[in-house]
Amino acid sequence: MSLLDVHKLEARHGLLKAVRGIDLAIRSGERLALVGANGAGKTTLLRTLAGIHPASAGSITFDGEDLTSLPAHVRAAKGIALVPEGRKLFGSMTVAENLQVAASAGRSGHWNFETVVDAFPQLKPKLKALASALSGGQQQAVAIGRALMTNPRLLLLDEVSLGLSPAAVQGVYDSLAQVVAMKTTLVLVEQDLQRTFDFADRIVCVLEGTVVASGLTSELTRDEVMAHYFGHRS
Ligand code: ATP
């Protein structure tokens, strides 16, 4: 059975339908990447899965339970966490506070303050620093750590490497390897196609709010994905 089943999902921004009838089934432990141009609807889809943006039609079933109309904090308690685009940290709180504030939102499990700090050793000397004073890579580590504090079963990652230096991007992916080792189910939006291919089991191409192609990374070529990216359906 799938961990997440998305059926004919729609989400709007006013009159604009940003997600138009998406079907997705994600197996437990799978690493799925959403690929598509700016404005394809990837962020809206992730926010709708997390319950931050309302669905206007369709359904979201998680572990057999219909979550479509449940609020974000209930979904977090059931094991869905989002690392949002732009990180959205509490800038006037310390790193430690940013992590601790998430603990009560989620479930208990492997991840707690100590295990998260161990997974992101670069944060150890920064725990008392304000989140706003950190570098982009350090902030991204806090954002991922904050999501892990909820012990997610499904972790949604939106553009975690956007705007970071190559070294910081490598740091983010090194720490994600520990999440992969825990077999957490992951949905990732990543602009870097090589990283997408290296990281994901399956790629879903999104164009204008719909799924136009999907396949295992082992069976897809970069050219096929790029063709869908720009809307040239082959
Ligand atoms: P990006 O990579 O730029 O984040 P995306 O694939 O994540 O793109 P979305 O951000 O979900 O796409 O945007 C989908 C569509 O919804 C776009 O046409 C975008 O302009 C529109 N949109 C997104 N957010 C809003 C908003 N807050 N208000 C109005 N329209 C929006």
From TrEMBL:
<keyword id="KW-1003">Cell membrane</keyword>
<dbReference type="GO" id="GO:0005524">
    <property type="term" value="F:ATP binding"/>
</dbReference>
<feature type="domain" description="ABC transporter">
    <location>
        <begin position="1"/>
        <end position="233"/>
    </location>
</feature>
<keyword id="KW-0029">Amino-acid transport</keyword>
<dbReference type="InterPro" id="IPR003439">
    <property type="entry name" value="ABC_transporter-like_ATP-bd"/>
</dbReference>
<protein>
    <submittedName>
        <fullName>ABC transporter ATP-binding protein</fullName>
    </submittedName>
</protein>
<dbReference type="InterPro" id="IPR027417">
    <property type="entry name" value="P-loop_NTPase"/>
</dbReference>
<keyword id="KW-0813">Transport</keyword>
<dbReference type="InterPro" id="IPR017871">
    <property type="entry name" value="ABC_transporter-like_CS"/>
</dbReference>
<keyword id="KW-0067">ATP-binding</keyword>
<dbReference type="Pfam" id="PF00005">
    <property type="entry name" value="ABC_tran"/>
</dbReference>
<comment type="similarity">
    <text>Belongs to the ABC transporter superfamily.</text>
</comment>
<keyword id="KW-0472">Membrane</keyword>
<dbReference type="InterPro" id="IPR003593">
    <property type="entry name" value="AAA+_ATPase"/>
</dbReference>
<dbReference type="InterPro" id="IPR052156">
    <property type="entry name" value="BCAA_Transport_ATP-bd_LivF"/>
</dbReference>
<keyword id="KW-0547">Nucleotide-binding</keyword>
